[in-house]
Specification:
LS/RS (chains A, B, C, D, E), alpha/beta, 4 strands, about 150 residues, homopentamer, Rossmann fold, four-stranded parallel beta sheet, about 20% strand
């Protein structure tokens, strides 16, 4: 299988490097990495990786700043990534770090590291072992933080 | 008829299991179940079930967290599910639980259980007995809670 | 001409019945009625009535609750109905009642009754007598309430 | 050249009449005018004027009320007009009056009159003399109000 | 390579002129410049430059006012530019100045000048040297302001 990785120069953490490091744990997974300026440039790059580079799936790595206009860009990214998926019938797994989701930089770094690695594993499962995701259906998985767990009777 | 079921690992309740349990009450309904990480991954999976697995309709089972960014993802999901429907001319019935819509987990569990079952029945009626929905037009149906009922003269 | 009517089981008023009653005033207008669970299910049903039932125009009858997430669904409905129109080059006249737009149920009932009837007339004019709409251009028409009227020099 | 004009019965000012009056200053410009109920009906009418009436460009004339749901409709209109443009590769110049942008009706009337006329001129320039727009690039043009002017070193 | 430049008459700074000036530093880069009235007119012009003028990439130069409705237009622009990219499989680099992002006009002028020049360089790298962007992945690049830099362990 072939996986696409798209990250940004806007991000304050080299998320693409983490994703590629995680891929080393999987034999036989080829990858192509592309870097764009910011999150609004991500959807078309993901679509190009699918259509021009024959990727089976793409993991996109975005970073959203604290300003209100950054939230607006996040909506545009989210709608855009879904339209790109609908045009290609392939999954694009969106990993986003919101700069205001943690108090300090150390925590952000840990969250980003975990979230990228977990979503790379999700992407590989979606292509190779979709039934592994079904085993975890409804279990309150949280990428980057500890899983919150299921609500049980 | 064949129905698609899409749920998430993010959800804290195994909504897919409830949907499949409800389907047992209906003879001759086949199903395919897929699980994706979160709600923004739902639209393309629903479209794939329609186009690649020949489902007549899909029920999608989403879970929206309490954070503001989760509301933004909910907009993207909603627009995406409608575009997927418009591209396929098939219904995708979206069942969403908002984590903040109930005070305690017990209530959430009951709401989710009811809402999933009622929307599975809606989906089957849309394909098999659309006139049954017309009988309930304008009657204030509320999936998950008690029906609020019609406003009468 | 053939008109499509789409309403919901979520609505607390049988808006479809009102629309069909209004149609009796017009000779030679055939109709097809479909009922879906909620407003996010409306756009694809409208598109199917145009493409599979050969309707010349569709009137959709939605009901928006008081919760904030209902406002988000209203955006999705609005964008979806416009995309459905752009894909078919046919008008879809959206009649929406917002549950919080009136103080009491009696007023809501009166507003809904008027708004549905006026928009059914608009739909018929759009197909049969578009110049009748032009006669009322810029006159501050308000469906459901009294017209607010034009601003004059 | 042929220009399309779309206005609404919701508007409180006959903006279509103003647009057509402005067109008299230009020789050889044909026009087609259509009126729809409200702003969400505008995008498909503009697309039909381009595709079915062979208009080179369309000027759409909308009126947005004071209610919050009117702002939501404005988003839908804006996204819809852009998608219509992308599907046709033609410009649709959107002239919108927001009922709350002026204190009194007299001012609204003056703003509307100016804004419509200026955007009709923009539309004609876009087709006939696009380089005239480039001459005014970055000069802080404001249609309806006085130009705010450029920021100079 | 051939680059498209789209700017507006609404902008208070001649951003197109700055972009073209920056292009002089690059040999063999041809350009086409178009000016439209405002930001909602940008996406279709960018698409036309790609499809009708064979541009490899487009840099769009927008200016967003202080009013709330300007924020709504910014969402529409952002979604529209992404859809235009998805329809053409080409990048459209969006450079936006928000009038309220700086206290005084002098700062706005400096931010705009820097942001336009940096994004022109990004656009050229995306076409000619995409690996140069990857070298800066995750380094907290900020166009217009000083780079914020990476978060390091």
């Amino acid at each position: 299988m072939k996986i696409g990785i798209v990250d940004t120069t806007f991000s304050r953490i080299d998320m693409g490097r983490i994703a590629i490091d995680e891929l080393k744990n999987y034999a036989g997974v080829k990858y192509v990495r592309r870097t764009v300026p910011g999150i609004k440039d991500i959807p078309v790059e993901a679509k190009k990786l699918i259509e021009e580079e024959n990727c089976d799936i793409v993991v996109t790595l975005g970073w959203v700043g604290r300003a209100e206009k950054d939230a607006l860009s996040y909506i545009a990214l989210s709608v855009g990534k879904i339209i790109a998926e609908l045009m290609t019938n392939k999954h694009i797994i969106d990993v986003t770090i919101h700069e205001d989701e943690a108090e300090d930089e150390k925590t952000l770094l840990r969250v980003a590291e975990n979230r990228v690695r977990e979503h790379v594993r999700n992407a590989i499962d979606l292509v190779r072992n979709p039934e592994r995701l079904t085993k975890h259906a409804g279990t309150g998985q949280r990428q980057g933080y500890e899983d919150i767990g299921p609500i049980l009777k």
